[in-house]
Amino acid sequence: MKAARCLTPLALASLLLTGCWSQMELTERAFVLALAIDKGEKDKLEVTAQIYKPISQFGPPSGRSDEVSFNNVTLQGTSVSNIIRNTKTVTGRHAQFSHIQIVLISEEVARERLGELFDFFYRDPETRLGTSVMIARGRARDYLAGRAMIESTLGSQLFKQLDFSAHLAGKSLNTTILDLAFGLKSESETAMLPIVTRNSGQRQVVVQGVALAKPDRVVGSIPPDKVPYLLLLAGRYKYGLLEIPCEGDAGLAETIEVLRADTKLTPTLKGRSASARIEVEINASISELACTTIRGMADEAKFADRIAKYFKERMESVLDTLRKRKTDALGIGHRLYLRHPGEWRKIKPEWPEIYARMPIDLAVKVNILNSKMMNPEPFSRIDDH
Global pTM? Predict the structure, then answer.
């Protein structure tokens, strides 16, 4: 009985604790799924918020098929936070960022004022730091207009394309708000961002290419054909197919499937001079042969050496591009800071110039794990038996 008398007040008190964490109801919230930031009139910003639109589940299916599950709200202002606050005057609801999937920044804005745009997202308690960030070629708002190919919203469609391009195609990388903050605020002061653009026909939206960013702005980009080799150097290549042109046969290429890639970067600092060694090991399988015949282990080893040589040339080209633009996208400077903090403080003001002329020793190894065929002879080019 004594225990029951003690539990009764606790049970009554627990009733007072039930309810939502906030006084705001769901019907008072506008869930933002994607955000696009463009250059507005004069020196203003233009922000487009893609807001989820609940669709009634009642009524005939034919009446619901043409309904769009989102609305876009576009406003202009001098700051992101002020524009977001003003969306309530259009929607009548509070903009909720807990479900946002992607933030698009037009290349025009990113080349002028990248760093200051994200101060709002760093401070906003609702925004997830795992939200993806992309650079848009042309107007960012245009990528949130129209109908999605498969997904229910354009924001979800872009997020799916980014995920495939970064993890299964090796044509770009997924950079989150947190990744961007770490990169720009590191000692290297460089970050890499995925690019969304349209193909030559201006119809299909594709996610490919990488933008190079400094703390205040985007300073350049790496084209899609060189992105896999940038990712290999950075240790961020996940999976994909890579082509090797045939020797002497114009227009023909062979393909390997990268199953795993490991990268080891070792920087060295001596006085005011720096150097680095990068070792890249690739495990792959043969996907398609067009001009090579493999009859045994010796042919396979020769083919692997040819691939390694070609990849090394492409990676060295990427390294030359990074050094010419003085963009330490591989984070060499930050690694030197972690190893030699005292010496790093002395050379940090001169780091862009030191980085531009530093020697980098590159070693590439390719391991062919399988050919995916039981008997390749019927499908090989055999000149004589």
Answer: 0.86
